[in-house]
Amino acid sequence: MFASxxxxxxxxxxxxxxxxxxxxxxxxxxxVAGSATVxxxxxxxxxxxxxxxxxxxxxEHCAQLWQSSLLDGxxxxxxxxxxxxxxxxxxxxxxxxxxxxxxxxxxxxxRRLEAAGGQxxxxxxxxxxxxxxxxxxxxxxxxxxxxxxxxxGPQASALQPPPPPKGLLAxxxxxxxxxxxxxxxxxxxxxxxxxxxILPERPASLRVLSEARRxxxxxxxxxPMEPVAGSSPGPGKLALMVDMSRExxxxxxxxxxxxLSGVQGLxxxxxSEFTQHPGGMEVVAQVLAERGLYFLxxxxxxxxxxxxxxxxxxxxxxxxxxxxxxxxxxxxxxxxRLQRLIERARRKGTAIGIGHPEPATARxxxxxxxxxDPRDVKPVxxxxxxxxxxxx
Length: 392
Ligand SMILES: [Zn+2]
Hints:
Distance between the termini: 96 Å
Number of domains: 2
Bound molecules: zinc ion
CATH superfamily of the largest domain: Glycoside hydrolase/deacetylase
CATH topology of the largest domain: TIM Barrel
């Protein structure tokens, strides 16, 4: 009789221990499953899975994996390492003087890549100046990270590059990120290199970045900067303003670069005011230097000091030569401007033009650029101009 309340108390506490145990076990299981998922996502297989779903940073990591598979494949095919030249960029270009049958080379590379979880997206065989050429576009499933050019023939043994063109023409199309409409898709599917400049934190910024990668285009951040007073519309989200602290300028720029991870460089969206002030541009230059990115001054103000300021920090920098379609939607006028740029490239060795994702611009670029003779004026990414004309 006396013992019963005690027993009951003991019984109750046992019962509450019993009911707490499953909750605890469940919590531990969730924790274990959670950390296992995180660990898996950080593993190679996880990175590949994320990359296939368009996560730019994962695609960047996986590019290293595809590169080593590609080099292993070349080794398997008996290609000596000194016949292989790797040009960094997006996509990475790998040139090979092939001493073996190109079919065997294709097979060896494809095998290695597929074993690692990647794939060859597109392959083509053609003849060029007496050489047989194999061109492979490869990477993960759904995106391209590398372009392989293997030559076999009279030129292959010396690995001579084709004669240099008279001029390099880099066309940048900016203001991407608002949507993924037919014009945007038309531009991304151009068969020639164009550099795609994407605004941060817009509804389609990340999708355009992912599609640009898939299409093998070079992507840069189109960073909003303050225009001179009275400009309409304003520069929009994340814009760098002259009255901001250096910390705030850095914070905004880093946030934009973190979002569009994997871009190769940056050009200014608007910025006719901001680019006149060396203070803010110094911060931009610092961040670019830390991340190994290049700068293109869109040159929205004749008084811009952006190019000189960035160059002082030893960041590779370029300047826009001509806007193709500013305030113009007439294809004839846009074509005239494009022809002026082509002529400039021929005369001076390089030309850089900026256009926008408008139907008239897309039409003109699609009609003219693929028709250019690459031995005369060659359409290239911005990074190729920097590679061909390195800055001290
Ligand atoms: Zn812009």
